[in-house]
Specification:
Order of helices and strands: HEEEEEEEEHHE
Number of strands: 9
Number of helices: 3
Shape: rod-shaped
Length: 232
């Protein structure tokens, strides 16, 4: 290759081929940097979504655990503690409202956490929605009618919500309208982010397992003796 030098200072100049080669190398570096930045941005976005999902999941379990820790044994027939594989129903105390009377209860509240299929959620085969149904028990006898319960969805894209109750012997037991509370309850929750839910049906089973976040907590019951009739 011919080299060109300046006659005045003897400084070599760049050839056209060298300049074109340098521009090609620069273009490759810019493309590589762009891909790195894009991958970093995408990883940050995924991490943010997963972090938000994890925080919401822990908050949901904390909410259920807080309500459960205030649960009382069935104060009267028909108001017992009930569990299924994916739901839990109980009565808890809450601050009493002002006023008194023979029919006034000291802030009893019936609560049920359960899964159901929400019409606005795509791919209902893989996901369900968590809702809380609750009703204040101020003067009526027994559980209120189903129409009296408030019902509100509180979490979407749940793959699994599992409830396991244990008796005093540490044996896994199903409680059905029980007048006593279990020794403790284990709660399991498996969720995915809303973005992962969109393409979940096209994922392999291994990819599904990798994208699913799992959480659990254990709840004990400090008020296992129930309420005497004259206390509410």
């Amino acid at each position: 290759m011919t080299r060109f030098t300046s006659q005045k200072g003897g400084v070599r100049a760049f050839t056209l081929i060298e300049i074109m080669a340098a521009m090609a190398v620069l273009a490759i570096v810019v493309l590589m940097l762009g891909r790195i930045l894009n991958d970093t941005s995408r990883a940050w976005e995924i991490g943010s979504r997963e972090g938000e999902s994890a925080a919401l999941s822990r908050a949901l379990l904390a909410l259920i655990a807080t309500d459960l820790s205030s649960a009382i044994a069935g104060p009267e027939p028909g108001m017992g503690f009930t569990t299924t594989t994916n739901s839990i129903a109980f009565v808890r105390r809450q601050p009493a409202r002002s006023g008194s009377g023979t029919n006034h209860r000291r802030g009893l509240r019936a609560i049920r956490y359960e899964l159901y299929s929400h019409s606005d959620i795509p791919n209902q085969t893989d996901f369900q929605t968590m809702r809380m149904r609750d009703a204040n028990l101020w003067g009526e006898t027994g559980f209120p009618s189903a129409a009296s319960f408030n019902s509100e969805p509180i979490y979407y894209y749940i793959r699994e919500f599992r409830v396991q109750a244990y008796d005093d012997n540490g044996q896994a037991t199903t409680f059905t309208n029980s007048p006593v509370l279990p020794a403790w309850v284990d709660l399991y929750l498996a969720v995915v982010t809303d973005t992962d839910a969109v393409g979940f049906a096209d994922m392999t089973e291994q990819q599904r397992l990798f994208r699913t976040q799992r959480f659990s907590t254990r709840v004990f019951f400090p008020q296992r003796t129930g309420l005497r009739p004259e206390t509410y």
